[in-house]
Amino acid sequence: MAQDSLPLQYIKGVGPVKAKRLSRLGITSIAELIDHYPREWIDRRVITPIARLPIGKKSSISGIVESFTIQALNQRLDALCARVRDFSGTIDVVWVRVRSYRYNVFASLEKKLARHPRIFVYGSVSFFYKKRRFSAEDYEILISESDQPESFGRIIPVYDCTAGIDQRFMRSTVARVLDSMPPAHDDPIDSCMLTKRNLLPCAQARKEIHFPASYAARDHARRTLAYREFFLIELALHMQRRRIRSSIKNYSYEIRRNLLTPFKEKLSFSFTASQKKVIREIFNDLCSPRPMHRLLQGDVGSGKTVVALSAMLLAAENGYQSVFMAPTEILADQHYMSLKNFCEGIPVTIGLLKNGMTAQSRRQTLKALADGSLSFCVGTHAMIGRGVRFHNLRLAVIDEQHRFGVMQRAMLSHNTITDSLVMTATPIPRTLAMTLYGDMNISTIDELPPGRKPVITRIASESEAYTTIKQEIVRGHQAYIVYPLIEDSPNVPLKSITSEWNQLKKSVFNKYRVGMLHGKMSAHDKERVMHDFVNHALDVLISTTVIEVGIDVPNATVMMIQHAERYGLATLHQLRGRIGRGRDQSWCILVGDTSHEQAQKRMTIMVKTNDGFAVGKEDLAMRGPGEFLGTAQHGLPELSLGNLMFDQELIQQARDDASQLLSDTAQNTTHARSAREMIQQKFKERLNLARVG
User: Fold this and answer.
1) Alpha helices in 475-522 (DSSP H)
2) Is residue 683 a contact partner of residue 438, using CB atoms and an 8 Å limit?
3) All domains of the chain, ordered by start, with CATH?
4) pLDDT tens figures, 602-617
5) What predicted TM-score, i.e. pTM, was given to this entire model?
6) φ and ψ at residue 159, rounded to 5 degrees
7) How far is the C-alpha of 19 from the C-alpha of 9, rounded, in Å?
8) How many whole angstroms separate alpha carbon 115 and alpha carbon 52?
9) Contact 341, 413 (CB under 8 A)
């Protein structure tokens, strides 16, 4: 067993009890302990003379304990005051603790101070009962004058800890492990690469990240270890991409145009230049002997659905089945209706498979899938359930992939599908997309259909929003009103959809037809409400964010978002994408509390731009890549030090080096073989899932 995989209890000073406590932090091995990086560092390199201590500023002192006393501060608190002297003077150092009637809370400290040792203390000077005192936050007592302090005279790490595990224990344990670790002999980053990229050897970088000699050394170590994280991921993605590209399809496509031409002729619009480019890329993939594995990015309303449908029609021309997977039942219903409308008069059959169907409808759909009488099937995750069999499924379109778990996409892929098109309306900068989808080809629709007017977004009061909604209804248009809650909550002071629906339909909109839609409604009720709204049997739809993706009602020209300060930029932009889908001017009205700086910033960005890629960039900057991208949903390991947004140059370097190491000329070297073995062991099945998006 490698030393870094040893259980923690075998480390000196840990034992079974401490090991169990460390497991609460996700630390179960030496490797995980070393990778438990500090959350911050405190500079204790300077020891301040007692006579020069500033008031209220964090400082470190060192001196000899001359005496100490214990005082009762009040009915709950006791204080231990120790007189400490250095060459410049004396000061009383104070520790305050909650009194216990069962034991002496200062017993251990008293025993140590009774020997009048040398002590190092970190804290600040304040006035304690009108006297100048030094409030202790951390301390270290030396057993003998020849000892060197571990937590003073240096930059020290501060870790996330848990009950029974304090900073002193973490520092000493990590230091002990680092000192005993031998140099790595199987590191995939060789000495040439270290020199080329100005990186530290792994062992040195680990020591410097935990116990840096300077902040510059810490930053150098962080850069080295971040590069290492990216390099290992890029190696895995390159290996996966090579595997995908080495496989050959046992079927082929031919562009016959017996379905594509009628489809194009019946459309009421022409494809944009960007859509045409993306369709060519997809068709080239499908006609290639290797399986398609492509990510399609496009802003809300850019026309991704008709692009995907073009690919499905090409599959149907060749006698193959396609599935269109949606993340919610409402969205599946919408796509089902959209595909039926687009394909009206075209000889293809379209089915729907989701939870909540009648037993008879489900049996009929399953039978049609199995015998090949269905060309397309639209559905939710129900399509990857037991009992679902396909006749000759060859293409999977997965919409809004960030809402699907990796395992769901993997299960779909393992069901003999070899061509996959993953669509997302979450704009991701290309460098990040190449890391998250490093084994996929990427297409981007970067223009909206002609004739659409940009949505005007403004921050307004509730009454102003209601006035705009009424004006649009009078013009024959429809409106959305979005609330964050389904029901009132005593813990959250926000308006809810149920209470406001009852109130609004009786007062503000008593002359109009008002519907309600939320996630807790039955599938039948949701379908009925959406049918009514699509067919203009409703003027106003009061909803939660269940309408965030995929809903397409061109006659809806105004959206009022209540408590807009509660939503992230991505959600606000997705919601806004439900309007402005026709040729009439549309308005998005944000109603909310702008007193919070971040909320005001998000709402101001929405007012300034309709560009989804600009919104996505701002959202990424505000939230950080982890929350924005949800890397776990992409099958990638969590990054400890690397930052997908700010380390893009480092990512590109790691990608280039991984490609070079696994190139045809280098892949049989000892170093490359060692790297492949490490990746297989490190990621196992986790990164195998990256092949399905």
Assistant:
1) 497-506
2) no
3) 46-153 (2.40.50.140), 260-445 (3.40.50.300), 456-609 (3.40.50.300)
4) 999 999 998 888 887 7
5) 0.71
6) -105, 160
7) 5
8) 27
9) no
